[in-house]
Amino acid sequence: MLNVRVVKIGGNELDRPEWVAECARALSTIGPAVVVHGGGRAVSDWSRRLGLPVEQRDGLRVTTPEIAQLVEMVLGGPMNRLLVTALRTAGLDAIGLSGVDGGLLTAQPLQNGTALGEVGEIVSVRASLLQSLLLAGLTPVVAPVAPSVSAPVRPLNVNADQAAAAIAAALGAHELLFVSDVPGVTIEGVTQPTLAAAEIETMIEGAVATGGMAAKLRAAAQALGAGVRAVRIGDLDMFAHATAGTRLLAAPPATARQPA
User: Fold this and answer.
1) Contact 141/37 with Cβ under 8 angstroms?
2) So which residues are the catalytic ones?
3) What pLDDT does 119 receive?
4) Which of 2, 53, 203, 219 has a 20 to 30 Å separation from 228 between CA atoms?
5) How crowded is residue 29: how many other Cβ atoms within 10 Å of its Cβ?
C-alpha cells in the first residue's frame, strides 16, 4: 500500500502563475500524492461575465442549475489543465480528472441544503481508480465536480475541501494538506501550531473562523473522524517542514502530568 498524501490547493491562488509554479515544484518532492483543487474565484469571475449571481453562505456557493454547469466547465476545464500543465512542467506525470471520469466521485444533494441549490456532498469515492493511477506513477489532479447518485443524474457543486477530505479518507491517506497562501489558522493574529477538532464548531459559532476557513476546518474534522492520520492547514512551507502550518488534532491535547 502506498503512503499517499492528499493535497488540496486553494482556488484563489490559481490565478498567480508564480505561486502555482512554486507549488508544483514543491509537490514534486513529497512522493505519491493526489491533488484536489478549487477554483472559486474563476467561477465567480465567469458568473459575473455571464450575468449570473455570485452568493456564498458559510463558505459554500449558492448554486443554480446554470451555475452548476459553469462550475463543471471551469473546474474541469481551464483550472484543471492549468494545474496539470504546471505539475508536468515540474516533472510530475500529472493526469487531470473530474469526479465523473471513471465514476471517481458520486454525490448527493446536501441535507437541509435546499437554499444552496445544486450543492452536494460526496457519498462514494472509487479509491481503486486513484490507487491504480498512483501505482502507475501518475499524479491524479481532481476537479471536485461530482454527478448525483440518483436520477436525474446532474452535476453537483462539491466544496473542494470536503471532496479532498472524502478522497483522503477513502485512500487511507497518511496526511491531508490544505494549501493556500496563509501560514495556518490564526486566532487574534497568531498562527496556531495545533488546533483540536473539538474546538472547531465553537470557533465557527463565535465567528473566529468564517467563510472559506470555516468550510476548511469542518472538512478537516470530517477527515480526522474518518481515519485520516494527520491534517494540516497552511502555506507552501508545509511541503518542506513537518511542523509548518496548523495541525488539526482528533482529540484535545492531553495535559502534561506533573512529576510527583
Assistant:
1) yes
2) 8, 11, 40, 161, 216
3) 87
4) 203
5) 10
